[in-house]
Hints:
It holds the Pfam family DUF2197. The protein is mostly helical.
Amino acid sequence: MKVQCAICDRIDELPDDLPLAKKLRNRPIHTYMCPECHDRIEERTNRRLASGKFIFYKSSRLIENEF
Length: 67
């Protein structure tokens, strides 16, 4: 299965029996990200988390259900 990275537009080939390929085939809302883009985003997110200035906010849906 040919897939295209949503960030850098690189085209990769995934084996058809891979769980990720099945997920992408059956649920078009899911997007593919190449390993290089995934690692780069993960590294930058971890750097922001370590800085102490990055705050995770709860979604409004979770806050409404708590009351």
